[in-house]
Amino acid sequence: MYHCPECDGRAAGMSVLRRMGSKKSIRGLWLLARKGSGTPGADCPACRRAMVELDLPLANCPQPLRLDVCADCQFVWFDPREIDELPLPVAKAEQPLPQKGREVFAMHQLRRVAEEAEKTKHAEHYPDKPWQWIPALLCMPAEQNAPGLASRPWLTYGLAAVLAAVYALTFGNLEAVIAEYGLAPAKMWRLGGATFITGFFLHGDLIYLIANVYFLLVFGDNVEDDLGWWRYAALLAAAALVGDAVHIFGDPQSTVPCVGASEGISGVITYYVLRFPRARMRIMFNLLIYLRWASVPAWAALVVWFLMQFVFSYFQQLEIDSVSGLAHLGGAAVGLAAWLLWQAGGARREE
After folding, report:
1. Which domain holds residue 35?
2. Which residue, of 87, 120, 153, is where some domain finishes?
């Protein structure tokens, strides 16, 4: 049992809890913690990483205990009063071990804990869901420590389906459709300005579509759940519009059509990282046959993403790259503004 002098709380390992409750319930608690289920808790006093709050059912106890679980330290934290509610196991009438025997037993326990930690230290960042290996092989991150959803993000699902359907319908004549309905800065009022809308739903290739839909589903569901569908729709629309405006400002004489939903999704990603600072991203490094997973804070991934957009913007001005970093930065600015505008209301809902 570990005692924290700062908060006077105590932490117990999984092996201790298995002796106090059923092995099935303890295993279920651990799996839920690894998956990031439950509600976000306080920072762990030991490692300072975010914990999750979960219910622990115990034998002969009518109400489950609401506990903080740290998946990194493999500890379950108890407040001072909570530890008193645990049903203690009945001690057997046995002779106490001599001092030498207690020392040998303690050393054996330490070795066992060290061996278990060695086995799990490289696996702690692996994805919880097998399908997350697929985007990882395409150099896309997997979400970790995301908050739970209070409702279905139907707008996010619907928009992803529409983007996929539009690409399927236009695939056979993609170049002509993009030339007709893409947003060209030099002709931005073509079709009565409708290309600001139609360009959002078009994508130039399948990989670009897959990346946009993936990031929309990963980050959009939590943002829609936090903001509600109408403010979420306003964020997407404003980010797309401002992103297009910044792109036009970068080269107003360009006749090259600009398509894609990435400027709107950039605003969603920025809002997500600012609104959920405890979220993390799992990233896989693929070096030939060597695969290694790493877990990084979402804000760190956002910083790297911003640096990439500045590089893309520079290449865009040199006309050596087709990615509009300026549009992405414009959309991200709207995500920042939305967070500054709505963070107080979002914080009250989380409480």
Report:
1. 2-120
2. 120
Q: pLDDT tens-digit profile of 218-264?
A: 899 999 998 999 999 999 999 999 999 998 988 888 888 889 899 99
CA distance 214 to 261: 12
DSSP reduced 3-state for 124: coil
Residue with tokens 């401002």: 242
Q: What is the pLDDT of residues 281-310, one digit of tens each?
A: 877 776 666 667 777 788 888 888 888 888
Is the distance from CB of 236 to CB of 188 less than 8 angstroms?
A: no
327-349: pLDDT as tens digits: 889 999 999 999 998 875 444 34
- Dihedrals φ, ψ of 52, to 5°? -120, 145
Beta bridge partners of 40: 52
Number of domains comprising the chain: 2
Alpha-carbon distance of 68 to 40, in angstroms, equals: 9
In the block, tokens 């395409």 appear at: 138
Closest CA to 316 of 249, 216, 238, 242: 249
Whether pTM > 0.85 for this model: the answer is: no
Beta bridge partners of 10: 3, 78
Residues 112 and 168 in one domain: no
